[in-house]
# Entry
Amino acid sequence: MSTDATVTPAVSEPTPRSKTLLATAALAVLLTAADTYVVVLALEEMMSGVGLGIDQLQRAAPIVSGFLLGYIAVLPLIGRLSDLVSRQRVLLWCLVLFGLGSVVTALAVDLPVIVGGRVIQGIGGGGLVPATLALVADLLPRGRRGVALGMVSAVQEIGAVIGPLLGAAVLAFWSWRAIFWLNAGAAVVLALVIAVLGRGAPTGEPLRLGARWVARVGWIAGALGTAVVMFALWAPEKLTSNVTYGPPFVPYEGYTSRLITPIGFWGLGLLAGFVVLTAPVWWPRLRAVDVFGAALLTGALACVVWTFATADSSKQVMSDSGVWLLPVAGVSLVGYVVRHLTAKQPLIERGVLTGRVPAALLVSFLVGTALVAVVVEIPVLARLTMTNSQTTAAFVLLRFLVAVPIGALVGGLLLRRIGPAFVAAPGLVLAGGAIVVMSGWRSGALSDLVISTLVLLVAGFGIGLAIAPVNDAALADAPESAHGVTSALVVVGRMMGMVVGLALLTAVGLHRFSTEMQKVDRPNAQTVRDAGVVQVHTVFIGAGVAALVAAAIALFFLGRSVIAARDVADPLES
# Structure
């Protein structure tokens, strides 16, 4: 069986075409990173658009967590796919998925559809990151990837800055749906550029004439099915209110969704035909990825993400469904380990988890924990001690966010002269120290503009410094045939740190909050605020410790010389 060829690792200067491809991929990463944060300001309007009131905020949590679920859960699968087919094709299809998810979200009028659209967006957006990082490793030799990795990391972090600003700008003139229409338009433009740049890339073993025609019919069915489903979601009033043309848009008895209609089923049926008829094209490639192993690992990640991402962080560490989701995740993870040890070609290629890669994954997890703790808790601290304005609290956080991409870019530049350990470790010491200082901030601290800004800038800059070195160390020690899945694992590590790490810190913080409240005989608004400040401080102490532990791991393990993967045993095999 033949699959698409990956981009051959470069031994010479990248061509103008390859530089343009990398720049386009970086812009795509920026687009999807901004979308991660753009929903924050639009959430209330999105809830109203699908019939939810402001008092039903918990029901709306999947609008945010759905994107996160899609982003994380399938990362290993897409990363592995990018090792078996050309990076350009993976980038292209991820943009297609992101664009389709944006359109579904823009058209949604009920919660399941909008969550489905966000999941599709997350799958496409998440897959862009490992494919882009792997593309850097393909185009540049070891020792010369720092600047490119720093730039990719920087644009990813810039999304956290421009996302809310973009959302505010769009909402000032249009509705929340315009945000996702703009996403879809930008995805189309970037996909067209990548399609042009990817012309001439290997497409794998050609199909026989008959199978080729069947596949073409399948693609036509897919295009028609997509159009019909979108039309069903749109449901223009002139047609739905028409006696002649309206019946296909009427939901079946007992349902209200625009998809549970005759026209919705027609579209879904065409899409099912697309899947069946094009199977000869995509199934050989997917089978080479280890579908069963991918299903097990995706299931484990999905259960963990959904357990913690849908929890009400002000009251609980994990959602009520975690009682059964976490055991399922454990069984799935054990199943994947068994699969990894026994499969001829496992999802995570043997030899990947060697050298500095495990240390890089652990540092990535801890960096994600420290980063998200500041992102979540600084606005909370500002609301408790400084202002009642959510906008003012967001601008306080902006002082931290602008420093992260600057640190990422500087970290990439320093890698040209200094090893990963001596870039990441000092940065994480700076970040850890600054976050520990935040744990002592009380009323009035954030109002001291100079001191608070300096501490927030140091924390963001230090965290940013560590991002490119972690990617560089992991890619340097991973086999060249597994750059995609290795990049995916680094991203998964960081995102799981943001989800699980924050949940663990929040658990300790909630315990401290409860303890403080038990000391008070007659609670009032001020005592609740004081207990809330103690909770925030507790989270900051944990985040600072996480950053300092990551600094120690980086110092001792990320600076070693490159180790040939084939000479080191895979920890999962021992």
Notes: The chain has a mean pLDDT of 82. Residues 483-518 form the longest helix (36 residues). The radius of gyration is 24 Å. The CA atoms of residues 88 and 199 lie 9 Å apart.
